[in-house]
């Protein structure tokens, strides 16, 4: 009875060990299946992410091309200001930012792939250690059975059964190793695809660098043309300014008084006055004028002044030459030069005749050009 109890106890232990081994095998198979599914999902996600990143890079390249075309029009205005603020050109700044973004993105993807590979290797190593522990347990069990063979001959069938189970487990282990090899092959393929993607990224970067260099050369040409046009514009402005100075000198000479006329000279002596607004607001009494607007000075320092209520005299502060311009048939109230200093408006009391209220004199030609009504 004791031997039978021992045999039953051993059988019970064998069944428990076999059940535990079966559970561990099923768990290992489930874990491997889950890992395989997770790895496939990660591979698909990585491929989708890589395709998405490639598409975004292509969109960025096209966007940069459009922006470069627009920036060519604004480059001439923004280049100096941007260079003064950043101490570098706009193209250098853009290329540095784009290179940093691409390099950081590539580096992050490489680090993520390496981390995932390390995790998979660690999990495979843990599974191998568990399989090794199971093999050690089976070897110890074989030693125990062989030691008890002399006393328990009936346990040989059970031992044979266990050997069959061990062979099955070995077959499963070989299958797991085959799956592991397949996973390694897929990992190798993913690494190859990753290397091809890196090569494509390098090619795209080289194309971008070439296009950027072409754009920089074009911008340099445009800048040179801009400098040439700027020089031509400055020369044209100088010619225009010279012509304007010549015209001003001609107008200035033409509006200067021609000289005193013996029969038309006034009895007063004109003295130089500063060209100020307050001068025009003074009440002028050059032989008689009851209006505070009885004189005005033009841009050529020629003063028009009323004398004896009816006569208008021109006086140059530069040459101190006096000239009688005209004598009106009405009392003069005001004199006004135009901005260019070549037209003089004479206004006075109409005395019932509105056609003779205001006269506009062309001073260079010494004639009346307009008669204005009020």
Automatic annotation (TrEMBL):
Region described as Disordered: 231-267
Keywords, in A-Z order: Coiled coil
Protein name from the UniProt record: Autophagy-related protein 16 domain-containing protein
Coiled-coil spans in chain: 7-74
Keyword Hydrolase appears in the UniProt entry: no
InterPro entries: WD40/YVTN_repeat-like_dom_sf, WD40_repeat_dom_sf
Polar residues bias spans: 253-267
UniProt biased composition (Basic and acidic residues): 231-252
SUPFAM superfamilies: WD40 repeat-like (SSF50978)
């Amino acid at each position: 009875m004791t031997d039978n109890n021992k045999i039953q106890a051993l059988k019970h232990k064998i069944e428990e060990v076999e059940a535990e081994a079966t559970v561990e095998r099923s768990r290992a198979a489930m874990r491997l299946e889950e890992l395989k599914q997770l790895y496939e999902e990660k591979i698909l996600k990585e491929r989708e992410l890589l395709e998405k990143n490639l598409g975004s890079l292509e969109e960025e390249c096209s966007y940069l091309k459009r922006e470069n075309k627009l920036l060519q029009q604004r480059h001439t205005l923004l280049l100096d200001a941007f260079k003064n603020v950043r101490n570098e050109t706009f193209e250098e700044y853009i290329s540095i930012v784009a290179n940093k973004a691409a390099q950081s993105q590539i580096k992050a993807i490489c680090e993520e792939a390496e981390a995932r590979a390390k995790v998979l290797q660690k999990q495979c190593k843990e599974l191998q250690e568990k399989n090794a522990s199971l093999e050690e347990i089976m070897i110890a069990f074989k030693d125990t059975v062989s030691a008890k063979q002399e006393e328990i001959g009936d346990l040989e069938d059970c031992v044979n059964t266990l050997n069959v189970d061990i062979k099955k487990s070995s077959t499963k282990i070989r299958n797991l190793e085959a799956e592991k090899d397949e996973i390694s092959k897929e990992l190798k393929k993913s690494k190859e695809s990753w290397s091809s993607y890196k090569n494509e990224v390098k090619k795209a970067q080289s194309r971008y660098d070439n296009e950027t260099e072409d754009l920089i050369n074009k911008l340099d040409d445009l800048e040179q043309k801009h400098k040439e046009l700027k020089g031509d514009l400055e020369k044209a402005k100088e010619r225009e300014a010279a012509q304007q100075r010549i015209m001003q000198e001609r107008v200035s000479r033409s509006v200067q008084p021609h000289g005193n006329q013996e029969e038309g000279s006034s009895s007063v002596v004109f003295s130089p006055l500063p060209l100020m607004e307050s001068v025009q607001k003074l009440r002028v009494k050059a032989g008689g004028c009851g209006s505070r607007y009885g004189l005005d000075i033009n841009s050529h320092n020629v003063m028009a002044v009323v004398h004896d209520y009816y006569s208008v005299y021109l006086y140059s502060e530069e040459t101190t030459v006096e000239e009688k311009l005209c004598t009106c048939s009405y009392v003069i109230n005001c004199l006004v030069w135009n901005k260019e200093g070549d037209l003089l408006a004479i206004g006075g009391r109409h005395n019932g005749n509105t056609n003779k209220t205001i006269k506009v004199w062309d001073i260079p030609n010494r004639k009346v050009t307009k008669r204005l009504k009020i």
